[in-house]
Amino acid sequence: MNSATPSPVIRVTGVTKNFGTTRALHNVDLTVEKGEVVVLLGLSGSGKSTLLRHLDGLELPTEGDVSVLGQHLPKSSARELRALRGRVGMIFQQFELVPSLTVLENVLTGALARLKGPRLGLWAYPKALRLTALTHLDRVGLLDKAYQRADRLSGGQQQRVAIARALMQSPEILLADEPVASLDPESSEQVMRLIREIAADDGLTVVCSLHQVDLALGWGDRIVGLRHGEVVLDTATDGLSKAQVMEIYGRVTTSTTELSAIELELGALAAPLPVQDGLL
Ligand SMILES: Nc1ncnc2c1ncn2[C@@H]1O[C@H](COP(=O)(O)OP(=O)(O)OP(=O)(O)O)[C@@H](O)[C@H]1O
To answer: Which part of the chain is the ABC transporter domain (predicted)?
Structure first.
């Protein structure tokens, strides 16, 4: 952990991102303090992945500024961006493991950015790194699977391998893009609990996109709600109810079709939400 890490660790200011004629983000502001666990909540297409990808410089804004760990990403060189990515771990919905490699080799690939040249096979990695990888596998409860092929594992286990791989970077920030969207409820809970535990133990800052209000409320310190690329909600989860989150979405939503999608995807309420026109 870098003790000189500035606070806030993430500062997004007035970010707009256009892909051709598609506006994926519009005037987004977001500040995340060190050690905070933030959920990005929103429907499919609301801009969650695009915002996450701005936080490790995989995308750069059309307008506005993104500062991560004290580095202004739009002003950074390719080399500086690569160095930043070494300090920011990322996990994805589809795990992104190499299926034919062993679990241990997959974890070791998390250290590749620090090594010179490609590595083929377990023995191409220094012993110290192999031991570190085994320690991380132990931490995610998969030490006994180290020498199995990654594609023999369940989805939940594969996501835990991806977490161990991210830990190889000793990240200061962990970004998670819909990490449990492909998992059953039990595995989802396990993975989300694990991320929280690791964040607390290592003082990690976490930004995680989700599309279920229930999961977000029980898990994050704070929810940032996106809709059509704009932030419509940014509040602590403490004391916040599902009905309040849905009410905020209801307030900024003028179309009944969109409201139905929100109810379906973010979490249906027993009572229909009021549609208030003209509040956009
Ligand atoms: N590389 C790209 N080129 C063109 N359009 C893009 C690109 N990436 C994202 N978009 C568009 O930007 C908008 C936001 O997409 P984004 O993937 O960020 O949403 P999301 O909330 O993460 O959705 P999902 O939950 O389905 O992943 C969408 O309209 C999407 O089609």
So the answer is: 10-253
Give dist(CA 131, CA 104) in Å, integer: 10
Rounded mean pLDDT of the chain? 88
Radius of gyration of the chain (CA): 19
Q: What is the ipTM of this complex?
A: 0.97
Give 1-87+175-183+207-280's CATH code, choosing from 2.60.120.200, 3.40.50.300, 3.40.50.1240, 3.90.226.10. 3.40.50.300
Residue 269: other Cβ atoms inside 10 A:
16
| Residue 42 near ligand 1, beta carbon < 6 Å | yes
| Annotated domain spans of the chain | 1-87+175-183+207-280, 90-170
> Best mutation site among 15, 22, 208 for ligand 1, i.e. most ligand atoms within 8 A of its Cβ?
22
Ligand 1 pocket test target in 16, 25, 50 with most atoms within 8 Å of CB = 50
pLDDT per position as a tens digit, 241-261: 888 888 777 777 767 777 777
> The tokens of 22 are what?
């598609």
